[in-house]
Amino acid sequence: MRVDLRKLRNIQRKIAKEVRLKEEFKLDEVKKIAGFDVAYFNDKAVCTAVVIDAKTLQILEKKTIVDKVQMQYIPGYIAFREGPLI
Question: What is the pLDDT of residues 11-58, one digit of tens each?
């Protein structure tokens, strides 16, 4: 699969302009926390998501999907490899 790095870099720059580095929420108002991980086995990717209650840390929901890897690993562009799975 051919990847247009110039196009991906432009997308990253556009997204970067939207990033806010100052805290705009109150930590005590956070109710749920989600975490994701992606692992790779040959040509397959496994993505797991877990949502927990922020106060009790109890697991509220978890999901796992398996899909074909859509893009090779390119340093600096991992979001394009893992983002669609997440």
Answer: 999 999 998 888 778 888 999 999 999 999 999 999 999 999 999 999
The secondary structure element, H or E, covering residue 8 is: helix 5-16
List the 59-68 sheet strands across, edge first. Answer: 32-41, 44-53, 59-68
Query: What radius of gyration do the chain's Cα atoms show?
Result: 16
Torsion of CA 63, 11, 25, 49, to 10 degrees: 10
For the stretch 55-70, pLDDT in tens is: 999 999 999 999 999 8
Q: Residue 78 — φ and ψ, nearest 5°? A: -60, -30
Question: What sign does the CA torsion over 63, 73, 79, 81 have?
Answer: negative
